[in-house]
Amino acid sequence: MNSKTLRVLEFNKIVDMLRQYASSDLGKSIVDKLEPSTDIQEISLNQKETSEAVSMILKKGSLGLGGLRDVGEYIKRVNISGVLNIEELIHIGDFLRVSRRAKDYGKSESKNDSFPVLEPQFNAIETVNDLEREIERCIPSPNEIADDASRALREIRRNIKIANDRIKEQLNSIIHSNTYKNMLQEAVITIRNERYCVPIKQEYKNAFSGLIHDQSATGATVFIEPISVVQLNNKIKELHNKEKVEIERILALLSSRVADNGEIILSNADILAHIDFVFAKGELSIKMNGVEPRFNTKGYVNIKRARHPLLDSKTVVATDIYIGKKFNTLLITGPNTGGKTVSLKTLGLFTIMGQAGLHISAFDNSELAVFDDVFADIGDEQSIEQSLSTFSSHMTNIVRILDNITPNCLVLLDELGAGTDPTEGAALAISIIKYLHALGVRTAVTTHYSELKVFALTTDGIENASCEFDVETLRPTYKLLIGVPGKSNAFAISQRLGLPEYIINEAKEVLSHEDLRFEDVITDLEISRKSLIIEQEKAEEYRKEAQRLKSEAQKQRNRLDEQREKIIREANEKARALISDAKDEADSIIKEMRKLQKESTNTQALEEQRGKLKDKMSKVESKLATRKTYKVPDKLVKGDRVKIHSLNQRGIVSVPPNKNGDVIIKAGIMTVTVNIKDLSLDTSEEQLTYEPKKFANNISRKKRSNVSAEVDLRGMLSLEALDKLDKYLDDVYLAGVSPVTIIHGKGTGALRKAVHEYLRGNPRVKSYRLGQYGEGEAGVTIVELK
Question: Which residues are within 8 A (CB) of 223 and not within 5 positions of it... i.e. 6 or more apart?
Fold first, then answer.
């Protein structure tokens, strides 16, 4: 893409903004080389990189790459056996630490995290933790090597400390001695030429035994190394030389390890430089509220709510720009400073940014085309090069554009034909637009010429557009209106500014009738457009209000449904509890009745128990009736399909209700008498079938969770065992459990005989048999229920 267009559209300023977000010189060098691509696959990959970087930043925070620097020169030197100094090795350690942190940053925190483009790049980073730790251990700060860097260094520094302590001890004895009190200028220890000395007065220099190393500026003081510490000073100097040699050895060793990992470090440098560049794009996108645009190769551009990224984000006016589907040439007219050139630059800059892999400051689902090149001739005061404002400069640029144009290009022409005779300029402009339109080039043009407005109105594939201007406030709104030709508004603006009306009327008379009529048409179009917008806004408000009311009504219905279901659920739970309690009490009463029946001595007590059972069932029926959540039929006739709610069964009316409301119902193989209050009409389409296992399934579900598949009767008397067996068979029958095992033991066989006699006469038993080998043999009976 030609550099002149990049400069005219101020892409370099976008690059400068991007550069600020790169953390390293490596990343900045990639930013400086950024150019638009014309390969749609490469563009899509670059855009996905940016989008994934944005997602990772928003999820994990910014990627810290502080410490990332170019270590290429260091690797070159160690590869030829060079030795790095302390500062350079610290840089290597920082680089290794950045590599490790970047790799950790790229790890997925959950299965829902998916970064298919960036994740492989993070995974490709190799960490050298042992070298990083060794550098950190040996070099704790930029000015020192740690004592523990090696045993030899630790021993040398220990000896230096011992020698220093002995020297200080000797010198302290001298400066505090009465013998030398008058000779000393001051009672202090000082260092000269890396040797410990004491300050002696000039007149005593010959009397004090030692080596003179220096004297004061006035000559009154000489600095003498006492003869008693000369050997110790010599030893310290020797130890310092050994220390220096040992440090050089440690640095050489660390440099050798850097050389061993040189390829890994260089590979990481390339990866981290690219990641730094990608995350700079992500940070820029977040800064300008950017989105990833979609791309096509059909020349179609549709930018929604575009905001020029170089304008103040708080004041910039968003606008919609589209071209390439119904028309390939857009002709923008309107007054100066109305936003025409901004619209032109926004279209061109977004195209370049998108093809360079950058997000654009617009709404989601904005679409851009991949162009082979973008050409721009923008020459007003907003342009970078002021010289382009003359007609000759315009023509020079246009000639260059026409020489290099291809059908798959975007051309942006500002004030086409300006700077010369209006008639000739308009004719040239129409001719150039025709040529570009015939080639199929996507072209956006700004102009003031009315002839071009008429040309656009009468030519297919060319669309008028204008930048809205508020005559009342004399300010542009900066909104691009596609489909509406613009007015210069010169008369209206002049009148608002105070130009006498008679002068304006005189000017209007100079214009031809056709010109005035055309301007009137434009005015009518503008009025109609504003009216349409107002009506659309009202319609949108009505639609939103209707949607809100609909939503509230739906919420109200949902609340009512929930309340109804809750009431029904609570009623059913209470009904199940009543039935369960009634069943338990009925079982107890039946057991007592059987006991009385077998004794056959107390008929009055038997009748009392029967009365209790009847009363209990009547109470349950009464309570259930008060909790019904169904409609009791007003009238029933023979053949009506009904639902028996207490049994949760469906049936057919055999005999209509009598005066007490009792109805005889055929329910499967059973015929039952039920009060009409326990019935409702069955409106289901299902065919009635008898399913004994579902008889009273409300009780069945409760029992099934508690009943066992076997019962143990061993150790019981026959009467006690049969009572327990009778209760057990009721439970398993209601629970739908079959077959079951009755454990009676072998013994004398009396209990087994009593059980078999009971089973033979029980209507719920389908068959029974003694257990087989592995089931308990003769000690158990296996019963299958109907």
Answer: 190, 192, 197, 198, 199, 200, 212, 213, 214, 215
Q: Exposed, middle or buried: residue 431 (CB in 10 Å: 0-12, 13-18, 19+)?
A: exposed
Angle subtended at Cα 288 by Cα 286 and Cα 291, rounded to the nearest 5 degrees: 70
d(CA 309, CA 17): 10
**What confidence score (pLDDT) does residue 650 get?**
83
Q: How far apart are CA 300 and CA 577, in angstroms?
A: 70
CA 329 to each of CA 265, 311, 442, 444, 456: distance values in angstroms, whole numbers, following the listed order = 53, 26, 6, 6, 9
Other C-beta atoms closer than 10 Å to the C-beta of 673 total: 11
- Cα distance between the two ends of the chain: 88
Return the pLDDT at 669. 63
Would you give the DSSP letter of residue 777? G
Judged by DSSP in three states, 247 sits in helix
- Residue 681's identity, in one-letter code, is L
Amino acid letter for position 7: R
Task: Please report, as a single letter, which amino acid is at residue 46.
Answer: N
Report CA 595 to chain centroid distance, whole Å: 74
Q: Over 514-534, what HEC string results? A: HHHHHHHHHHHHHHHHHHHHH
Query: CA–CA separation, 118 vs 60, rounded Å?
Result: 14
- Average the pLDDT over each of 26-30, 138-142, 161-165, 419-423 and give the range with the smallest value: 419-423
Residue 445 in 3-state DSSP?
strand
Closest CA to 769 of 786, 748, 755: 755
Residue 198 — φ and ψ, nearest 5°?
-125, 145
In single-letter form, the type of residue at position 535 comes to: E
Q: Tokens for 465? A: 């557009």
User: Residue 421: what residue type?
Assistant: D
- Mean per-residue pLDDT of the chain: 82
Give Cα separations from 558 to 218, 454, 546, 549, 571 (angstroms): 103, 59, 18, 14, 20
d(CA 85, CA 82): 10
